[in-house]
Design brief:
Number of helices: 14
Radius of gyration: 21 Å
Order of helices and strands: HHHHHHHHHHHHHH
Distance between the termini: 37 Å
Oligomer: single chain
Structural class: mainly alpha
Number of strands: 0
């Protein structure tokens, strides 16, 4: 391996280093229903949302269902599985991972109840649970990364994402403190909190995972060459936007958003080199579905640019839907249909005696299954965005229902794949 950053690779998969199947499964099922809960809360508050009123407790509760109970939960499960496999590290002990899940889940439930009913006690207790649960997770995963035996591109993205997750929960604790006790903190604290969470935690994590999985499953097995540009400019974007808001300097916000555009271009450029739009690569249904998530990342870039340069701040509402439900959510819905059958195969069949019958991955999880959830999520979000533009509550409800159907379908298909039976081959 060459020295320096240019010598790094995404790395091979160390299939002997894997968590117990129960660990990511529990997080993913909980996360899927967390997403459904968020969609339900948005439906309840749909009139306020369509009018651009995002400060109501019910709306904020729905947002936290998405970000904490949904997307962060599934990403935690993914990291428990991927960090050992991709960084050649020992898996986190099952007891430690499940204990962290219990603390975090209780914290989310109590915190969301506090937001809905405006209960300072529930907010305080739930906030303690969230801080404890996320801190426990950072210790669990950070400890595996710090004892790694292999360092690669994926490690850069994962480590940065964990740092931003820690900052996110710190900012969240400060905001909860202000909400409960009325203590003043710096202006635009909510914007800073969202920037760190969306741009840093989700941005670095999903980019890093996408780089690795496109290299793993794509026919070209392309090693990214612009990854350090992506990594650097994502960090620059977060820092610029945060600094601009804290200091009240508009040009820093514009500079930060410019960095975000560069990071987006480098990321997409690497994926194109790795097989995006390549006929042979895009025959894979999962990669086709994962590629469609980039449509929404592009929508986010366009709407965000108009919001920043044109001071049209209500556009951040659909922009963040495109980012969270579209890019992050659809990426997980797609790639999980590669990861879950691979996990089942590893735990049930990989260590079978030579010559014993075993299924192929396509026998555990049919490739065409991806079309149902991904199409439902894709068109559901399109419907939500159009409904927001026209202020239509009926179409917005339809979009929410299609999104919910996607996540419920994923759980149903996962249950079928887990139970079997699976067709066996010599």
């Amino acid at each position: 391996m060459r020295s320096g950053l240019t010598g790094l690779r995404v790395g091979r998969a160390h299939t002997d280093k894997t968590s117990q199947l129960l660990v990511p499964t529990v997080f993913w099922i909980t996360g899927a229903f967390g997403m459904v809960a968020g969609l339900w809360r948005l439906w309840i508050s749909r009139h306020a949302v369509l009018q651009g009123v995002m400060s109501a407790g019910g709306v904020i509760a729905g947002i936290h269902c998405f970000t904490l109970a949904g997307l962060t939960m599934v990403m935690m499960g993914a990291l428990y599985q991927l960090v050992p496999v991709l960084l050649n590290a020992k898996p986190v002990r099952t007891g430690a991972a499940l204990s962290q899940w219990v603390i975090y889940t209780i914290g989310i439930i109590v915190f969301v109840i506090g937001l809905i009913y405006n209960s300072p006690l529930s907010l305080s207790l739930g906030g303690v649970g969230l801080v404890g649960g996320i801190s426990f997770f950072v210790v669990n995963i950070g400890g595996r990364i710090s004892h790694r035996t292999t360092w690669n591109i994926t490690g850069w993205f994962f480590t940065g994402a964990l740092g931003y997750l820690s900052l996110t929960i710190l900012m969240g604790a400060l905001l909860a403190w202000r909400y409960v006790f009325g203590t003043a903190i710096f202006s635009h604290a909510l914007t800073v909190h969202m920037t760190i969470a969306v741009g840093g935690w989700f941005g670095l994590l999903v980019s890093g995972v996408s780089y690795r999985l496109w290299a793993m499953f794509g026919r070209k097995h392309h090693e990214p060459t612009l990854w350090f540009v992506t990594w650097s400019f994502i960090n620059g974007a977060v820092m610029g936007i945060v600094a601009g808001n804290v200091l009240g300097v508009y040009w820093l916000q514009v500079l930060g958003w410019g960095f975000q555009i560069i990071a987006f271009a480098a990321f997409v450029g690497d994926l194109i080199a790795g097989g995006l739009f390549d006929r042979r690569t895009m025959r894979d249904p999962v990669l086709r579905a994962a590629g469609s998530s980039l449509v929404f990342l592009g929508v986010f870039e366009v709407l965000g640019t108009i919001a920043v340069l044109g001071h049209h701040y209500p556009l951040w509402i659909p922009a963040l839907w495109a980012y969270g439900l579209g890019w992050v959510g659809l990426s997980f819905l797609s790639f999980s249909q590669k990861l879950f059958p691979f996990m089942i195969w590893l735990h049930r069949y990989a260590h079978a005696p030579r010559g014993r019958k075993a299924p192929r991955l396509d026998d555990i999880w049919r490739p065409w299954w991806v079309y149902g959830p991904s199409a439902s999520a894709f068109f559901g979000l399109i419907t939500m965005l159009i409904a927001w533009g026209f202020g239509s509550g009926g179409w917005f409800s339809l979009g929410l229902a299609l999104e919910a159907l996607a996540w419920v379908s994923l759980v149903v298909m996962g249950t079928i794949a887990f139970r079997g039976p699976h067709r066996l081959h010599e």
